[in-house]
Write a structure and sequence with these properties.
- By secondary structure, this protein is mainly β.
- Helix content is 0%, strand content 38%.
- The protein is built from no helices and 12 strands.
- A 4-stranded antiparallel β-sheet has the order 1-2-3-4, with no helix packed on it.
- The C terminus is likely disordered.
């Protein structure tokens, strides 16, 4: 199933789509009599014609469902169950795991931070919301696995406090 649809802001005819693909583990393609002629294994697809056609750009990503994409400084970020991956550009192919400090946990959503164009907010499962401060211009994306990425909880404790009232004994 489709997990995200993202348009490239500078080029509105470029569209990126991510697919989950979890169900094929339990219900293999074809077991329900469905047509197998157009089934592939990709999880990230790109269209340059506003969605009329798509190309698989999953490249060397792990064969697990992709959850979200984000374009930062001309590079494609992909969130999946292993973390966040950075492509050399927006055409896929080679991806590198983003940084060494990001916990190996599913990341379901990526958003650009409004305060810094090199900061990404990543919503993970089990690890909370994290901010990833990328090196400027995502320089040297081919070295993404070796670059230092600052990872910190979001919101920062000094900036926000959350108070949870005690549970009520009211029954419904």
């Amino acid at each position: 199933y489709v997990t995200s649809v993202v348009m490239e802001p500078a080029h509105p005819r470029k569209v990126f789509v991510t697919l989950a693909g979890y169900s094929r583990r339990w219900i293999p393609p074809g077991s329900l009599g469905d047509d197998l002629s157009r089934i592939g294994r990709g999880h990230v697809f790109k269209s340059t014609d506003a969605g009329a056609s798509f190309k698989d750009i999953s490249g060397d990503l792990p064969d697990i469902g992709a959850d979200d994409t984000l374009i930062v400084d001309g590079h494609l970020l992909v969130a999946n169950d292993l973390g966040v991956f950075l492509a050399d550009g927006t055409s896929g192919g080679h991806y590198s795991l983003l940084g060494r400090n990001l916990p190996a946990a599913p990341v379901f959503q990526l958003n650009a931070s409004p305060r810094n164009r090199h900061e990404v907010v990543a919503a993970s499962y089990g690890r909370g919301v994290l901010t990833l401060v990328l090196p400027s211009a995502a320089a040297g994306a081919g070295t993404a696995g070796r670059r230092t990425v600052k990872v910190e909880p979001c919101p920062r404790p000094a900036l926000a406090a959350v108070t949870v009232p005690p549970c009520s004994s009211t029954s419904f």
